[in-house]
Design a protein that fits this description.
Elements: E1 13-19, E2 24-29, E3 34-38, H1 39-44, H2 49-52, E4 70-76, E5 80-85, E6 93-95, H3 96-104, H4 106-119
Antiparallel strand pairs: 1-2, 2-3, 4-5, 5-6
Length: 125
């Protein structure tokens, strides 16, 4: 991916690598950050309305995604990726900023997700 034509100083992806066998997406940014994001985290944190809801406080807890895989990634313009998951979900547009945030905060987001599942009596499986 090229940073040509971008504006501002936000981190920009320089490499995106899908490893289907490991169910991960690795994104390297021009500030040197590199994040390997598991499919499960990407799926349960999808920016889609199906997961995030249509307003503040409407985020849904998505159970049963431990073994979800990424079947494909598609660029959307020069600002995002559409990630297609093995469960058919494909409506979230993952902007570069959001992918960076997910990578930076992956451990905290996964921990919060696991606590939320437990509190609601739900399972990753």
């Amino acid at each position: 991916m090229s940073g040509t034509g971008r504006s501002g100083a936000r981190p920009w992806p320089t490499d995106i690598s899908l490893k289907k066998s490991e169910r991960t997406l690795t994104v390297t940014f021009d500030d040197g950050a590199m994040f390997t994001l598991p499919a499960e985290l990407l799926r349960v944190e999808s920016p889609s309305a199906e997961v995030q809801g249509h307003g503040a406080g409407q985020k849904k807890t998505v159970p049963g995604k431990r073994n979800v895989a990424i079947t494909n990634v598609e660029p959307v313009g020069t600002y995002a990726l559409r990630i297609i998951f093995s469960d058919g979900h494909d409506s979230g547009l993952f902007t570069w900023d959001y992918l960076y945030e997910l990578g930076r905060d992956a451990d905290a987001k996964m921990h919060a997700y696991l606590l939320d599942l437990k509190a609601k009596g739900l399972s990753r499986d």
